[in-house]
Amino acid sequence: MDAQSRGRAEEIDPADQWVLNPRTGNYELQLDRSAPQGQRSATSPRGRRSAGARSGAPESPQSAKSAKSPTSSKSPQGPKTPAPADSPSPAVPGPRRGETRPGRRTRRTRKSGSGNARRRRLLVATGGTLAFLLVGGSLGAYLYYNHLNGNLRVTDVGDAGTGGFKKDQPINILVIGTDKRSGAGNEGYGDSGSPGHADTTILFHVSRDRSNATALSIPRDLITNIPACPTKQPDGTMKTIPAQKGTRFNTSLGQEGRDPGCTMRTVKELTGITVDHFMMVDFNAVKVLSSAVGGVPVCLEKGVDDKDSKLKLGPGEHRLQGEQALAFVRTRHAFGNESDLDRIKTQQQFLSSMLREMKSKETLTSPKKFFSLAEAATKSLTVDSGIGSIEKLTNLAGELKDMNLKNVTFTTLPVLDNPAEKVKATVVLDNALADPLLQMIRGDVSLTEVEKKEQAAKDAADAETRARQEALMQGPRAGARDVRVDIYNGGGPAGSASTTLTWLQTGKGVAKASNLGNAPAKLDATLLEFAPNQADQARALADIMGLPASALKVGTADAGPRTAMKLTLGADFKGAGIPMTAPQKAPDEIQRVEADKAVCAK
Fold this sequence. Notes:
With 602 residues, the protein is of the alpha/beta class.
């Protein structure tokens, strides 16, 4: 109830509710004056003396004057009565609207004082409300965080992955799209009882400096070898599924009990690239993620009417979500020569468009889309334990958040029709094109033109050093049988020194090599140290192993005739026989899709 109505209810003039505070000299509005001031008890809240009077402190002149000149108050019970001499300073009625009393502050001044009090009360109320919202928001965020964690499905793949990524190293994530028919509405796609295959597989390589990424699609019908796969069973025991040679890549998941860890191992054997983590999704992911962003724009050069996938679209641009989006990425008869390779191109175009939608201003600034996307993504994902929580996924996302889509390239592992088949149903690796492409990914070389100002400055500073190193490579080479080298493992995969020794001795004729075990310290990059008179041996070994000029370090004094060079395998060493020098440009025949460009499906 406001001051006016409260005053009228108790037959108190509203002006009488403005009282002078002797401590501040300001008039203040008292909303709870339910009785005449003179009738209050000395112990009532409004009848107590001022703090100064109770403590014996001297009163202000104005307060003393008020005590000597008592006033009376209106009372509904009778005539005015003098206030007792020992009563507190009585209320002083405020002026009527428009009046100004001699020697008193104007109403405007009194309003200023009361306004300060109201503002203080408002700040207190607002602060309390803000604190409540912060606490409530934190609780809500915590509950939502736990909810999203509960959406994730986590698979322990043992030592198939690295168990984590490092901020100063490239990141390799295997994205697996399974054709398992689980989930509401997916039973009608056929093969509903199948445990699923690795239907769509993309190795997503993020560069060490986080400036660029390469998304390498692996054809499902590629003939390859699947290594032995230790898998954790539902009861917690381990079972090793035997290796299988010369089979389709897509059987690396689901078949015979193989888990995503087996697909990770298969990719490593096929490409020479160690996978850090995996993310697996099924049919539902395409439906819910495309809907969460409000549809994914696609462009068609010609109309499509595919009875198998149920996709029916006219030429031109469309925004697809839900069942239509799934039909678009599943169709094998709508584009190109109706092969799985052309379906891969369509999927890459769709994923590029989805990435653009996810990073668009409309998505990032819409709370509804953001929460829908978070909900859809976590419900669709199965991940390894290394990224098996929202916190870990957030850390991973933090590594990728600033990457420009113009520096993200989709490509496909180059393949050829299987020459062993009369009816072409499977493919084999096209080594002439695949080898340089895989070397670029292993060497962390981008498929796009990326501006690297910091790297350019560093290259300029190191130009003289590089010139000296490259000069070392110019000159004669010793024969393999004359190369003496001691091998240390200083950061390569376990057993690298031993396997490299065997490879050099049995396959390359370097009989005077020795394995000296682990190096005293870890190295990021492989290093070959030698004396000036061993330069011909160093060049020969660099050629054999594919060592870059930067891996060579020459000493100042010549070595004895039986002294061996020192080869320390660093963290960049991926395995014996895998060259460490990578081409700086991919072959022109390599298929690619740039993530920042919209392309019409043909």
